[in-house]
């Protein structure tokens, strides 16, 4: 595999708080909460890829179906000289549909999961020898800048996977406002957003029968044991995911099956029996409510695609 990826280490400015800082701060909150970005070490990224293949997990295959249908329209709107910047690029798989339709000169993948980012972008560079591939390990919830040496003058930002749903609506608006700063005037943002739907379909997607989402959630505790000084026992916590209708979001929790004290980096935290650590929200939007949110962050809507069952949406937004 050729090592032809331009890797930009943005760590000092854009890495955000360390795992240790995030975990200690999150466990001290009431209720205990950790940000979803902590799921993604190499193992977490691999488990997410397995989630994408579960029959109950409709978002990935539905977004891919939408992109396959819309790719040529997207290429036309983006124009001939567009480059691609993917946020939370993960396996960089969906973007292949865009690369093939758009033939951009350059691609930049941004992800917090460094090892996985390196492997995925190297694979991309090997499969698309005509493409200049860049990668930057950065936290997209922090103010971002495009790395020096990334030549794309007309970047189209691509934010798939409904990762926008991991922010609450206020944070999502602030994130979009940050992206607004990053993009030049007239710059585009192609964003995948999961749609509101029946509780049964939503809850099944986050409680797959094979238990992969449960393993993904519990990997956070295994990661704490691997990377920090901690006696936390993942086996004493249970995965729980449910739809919170009032807030229009799926919530994921790790519930302690007993009263216990856990030690992390010399600090003790008490869990009562049944107490949960809140590990992820995944907000669901209607097409209209998401458009309104994007509008408040300074984006106007150019195009919208959904699937026949209205499970998922892909919006083409432009910096107004
Ligand atoms: C839900 S997965 C989506 C992966 C892929 N884009 C897809 O659509 O299948 C979220 C991706 O974003 C990355 N990620 C999560 N939080 C992040 C953050 N704060 N900064 C940068 N990357 C992040 C994860 O490592 C993971 O690759």
Automatic annotation (TrEMBL):
Show the GO MF annotations.
Answer: methyltransferase activity
Q: Which UniProt keywords apply?
A: Methyltransferase, Transferase
| Location of the Histidine-specific methyltransferase SAM-dependent domain | 19-318
**InterPro entries per the record?**
EgtD (IPR035094), EgtD_Methyltrsf_superfamily (IPR051128), MeTrfase_dom (IPR019257), MeTrfase_EgtD-like (IPR017804), SAM-dependent_MTases_sf (IPR029063)
GO BP terms in the entry? methylation
Domain of life, source organism: Bacteria
Question: A Pfam family for this UniProt protein?
Answer: Methyltransf_33
Instruction: Return the CDD domains for the record.
Output: AdoMet_MTases
Query: Matching NCBIfam families, A to Z?
Result: egtD_ergothio (TIGR03438)
Give the protein name, as stated in the record.
Dimethylhistidine N-methyltransferase
Q: What is the lineage of its organism?
A: Bacteria, Pseudomonadati, Pseudomonadota, Gammaproteobacteria, Pseudomonadales
